[in-house]
Input
Amino acid sequence: MRTPVCVALVLVATVSFSAPKKKPKPVARPAASSKQAIVVDAPPAMAKLLQSTLGARFSVTVNRDALSDQPLAKEVRTVTAPVKAIAVVMARSAGDSWSLTVLNGADGTPLENQVFRAAARKPLKELPKSVAGAIALACATGQAPSAEKPDSAAPATTEPARTEVTKAEPRAEPKAEVKKAEPKKVEPAKSEPAPEPERTTVSSSSEPSATPSTLPALRMGLGFRGFGRSLTWAGDPEQALARYALRFAPAVAIHATWYPGAHFTSGIASNLGLAFMGDIGIGISSSQDTSRWGTRADRFRISGAFRQPFGSVFSLEAVAGVSLQRYSIDPVAANDGTPRPNIPSVAYVGPRAGVGVRLAKLGPIEVDAMGGIVILTSTGELGTEAYFRRAGGFGVDASAGVAVQLIDNLQLRAAFDWTRYFLSLRPEEGARFVAPSAADQFLGGSVALQWVM
Output
């Protein structure tokens, strides 16, 4: 009798000790420490850079060309739902600028937009720290899209929870875990119904106007210019007026164009600016035989500027302002006191308008050209009683330049310029000089270092 009793006791003990050992299943904590998913829609090189930058905090899925440039909520959810992504990072380039936009994974609303410059011909090695930080922070605030059928799933998850609790009465801890986890899954389902987020995407389409323009805001150059001059008279049979020719003279040249609105907007205000150009001759003298006269030459133009871009490569440019060009010769030679020949000093002043084109980013090369016209309101000494009191006329000018990028923002620019003034002298009856017209022409070339940003 003792043997069957002992066997029965052993069996009971075995069953009682083996049953509780099936309980340690609730150790599903690794799910809490797993990375949240995001989707990257970007060109290959940028996608790789974003993946390496954000991969430490998020599980990154690359989905190339998945979305349009301004996606609606439905488009975003079709990309984020399969991987339960909390955000989408879109990267778009225009010339030498990048725009990174973070969209909420649940409804596609914009969370962040960062615009920064990067050389188009060089692969970007890393994102600017401020940009990377802002993008990562925006991604963390996103939400995953809700489940499509939360109501049918809820009963199935709650029923088994009750049976498990009744089996394991002694341990109350699973009750707390089950009850806290389940409502969180059901709650997002209540915020699902409305397609209202799509309206927010439409209203946010006006936001890019508040981002800086991708076109340069400032173009400024300093360099060296060489020029020559030719002054001829028509209808002067007695040659009472002396012709003048200067083969070469040096000058210091500066030019600048600034679009202040381009620093903070990409709208029409980003294409309104100011333009300035000037050069001053140095070490110039005029000579005849052994006599030498001190000579001064300069020109200045200040204008309002407007540009109309067509894409990121081609743009039309227009300027309107005031032009001043002076050329004066001393009345007496510095070396021997000889009086100056009958060559008047001139100061051509008047309103000027010009139109031009610019071809940017042809590799490292940029090409520009412009033509203009000035209506003379003053001609300096030429328009006085000593020469022709009623003198007037107009001038035309043209210029063209080629700039080669040396390093980021710095270019070497070579340019050619031509200006010709057509002068109507209208001499009076019995005047000292009788020439009815004249032509004053300037040819120049320049080399300058140019800063573009």
In short: The chain is about 20% helix and 45% strand.
